[in-house]
Amino acid sequence: MIRFATPATFDGALRNLPMADDAARDAAAVRQAQLTKPAGSLGRLEEIALFIAGWQGAERPALDRIAAVVFAGNHGCAARGVSAFPAEVTAQMVANFHNGGAAINALAGACGASLAVVALDLDRPTDDIAQGPAMSETDCLAALNAGAAAVPDDCQLFLPGEMGIGNTTPAAALCAASFGGNAADWVGKGSGIDDAALARKRAVVDEALALHSSDCGSAFKLLQRLGGREIAAMAGAMLAARHRRIPVLIDGFIACAAMAPMARFTPAITGHCLAAHCSGESAHGRLLDALRLAPLLALDMRLGEGSGAAVAAQIVRSALAAHGGMATFEEAAVAGAI
Ligand SMILES: Cc1cc2ncn([C@H]3O[C@H](COP(=O)(O)O)[C@@H](O)[C@H]3O)c2cc1C
Ligand SMILES: O=C(O)c1cccnc1
Q1: How far from 294 is each of 44, 143, 181, 262, 287, CA to CA, in Å?
Q2: Parts of the chain with a pLDDT under 70
Q3: pLDDT, tens digit, 9 for 90 and up, residues 65-84
Q4: Residue to mutate, 169, 191, 259, ligand 2, most ligand atoms under 8 Å from C-beta
């Protein structure tokens, strides 16, 4: 299992990415061309099937084991009035996940995913990013490794999710520091804040950018200075999944923001990822463009927890059902194109 012993190990793992199995993808494309339908008529479902074939290394990929993991963390900047909810909701929602009562419990169940919850030092919020680094190097490494360790070895599709009151604030800061622009470009209404809170949130992000921008020369530094524990854990999990060639379905604004520092330095990091949806968070579309990902769905969801990924997993399931289950023209004795 991959372990990030030092910041350099993490940044090094990002420079040394395994690629998909082209032979398996090609074999899947040959099969796809023989199925009883006009070429291309299943649209993006065809592309999804080939994508999963390449990462699973199988002509007919399977989806028996989908793993959803919700990472939870608390944020010092929540004390700045940037969320519509109090910080104690993070721990209360973790209890709700354990009791089966959250949206992700229902939606993971509906798509047939296993669900695990990883709470990261909830009684030790990160520091306010407008005042200093969010975490120490040691704490950031611990979060990255907790993420890497949470990816089950045998899963066929990984769905990272998050819970952390205030976390759309560091997410916006990470986007700006990774892709340019300022708070006005990346800050949105998160859990549903009013205009006064929106102004406070923009100020926190602009102050954080001014404070840290001169020392953001690596993906690790970005995550350590401007991220949060659950955000770093998602980054570690998505990088670890890549090293095991496990495809990832990325959820909303915060999960995509966890990708931003890695994509800033290594755009190819998103190669094993599908974007589940475009969320209702105003900057998510811009973020998806920067990551060069086209979302599968746009349902005006703006929840997080991995909820959009769990819904989109049903699309992936449909893609693989068609790819693996259909008859070929020859098997069905149907005449091909003239
Ligand atoms: C009850 C509840 C459940 C949630 N589940 C996800 N989030 C989402 O909202 C938070 C981010 O929004 P902000 O930055 O405005 O705080 C994160 O916890 C995110 O996962 C929730 C938020 C609440 C209140
Ligand atoms: O896009 C998301 O995942 C999101 C948006 C707002 C609040 N929580 C999550």
Answers
A1: 10, 28, 21, 18, 10
A2: none
A3: 999 999 999 999 999 999 99
A4: 191
Percentage with pLDDT > 90 across the chain = 100
Q: What was the ipTM of the complex prediction?
A: 0.99
Question: If you measure from the C-alpha of residue 87 to the centroid of ligand 1, how many angstroms do you get, rounded to a whole number?
Answer: 10
Q: Is the CB of 279 under 6 A from ligand 2?
A: yes
Query: For residues 94 and 293, is the Cβ–Cβ distance under 8 A?
Result: no
Nearest ligand 2 atom to alpha carbon 281: 5
> Can you give the residue ranges of every domain in the chain?
62-319
Model pLDDT, residue 1: 81
Q: How far is the CA of 6 from the centre of ligand 2 (A)?
A: 30
Atom index in ligand 1 nearest the CA of residue 103 equals 5
Mean pLDDT, the chain, integer: 98
d(CA 95, CA 146): 19
The CATH architecture of the domain made up of 62-319 is 3-Layer(aba) Sandwich (3.40)
Both tokens assigned to 191: 């859990």
Nearest Cα to Cα of residue 184 among 165, 198, 166, 167 = 198
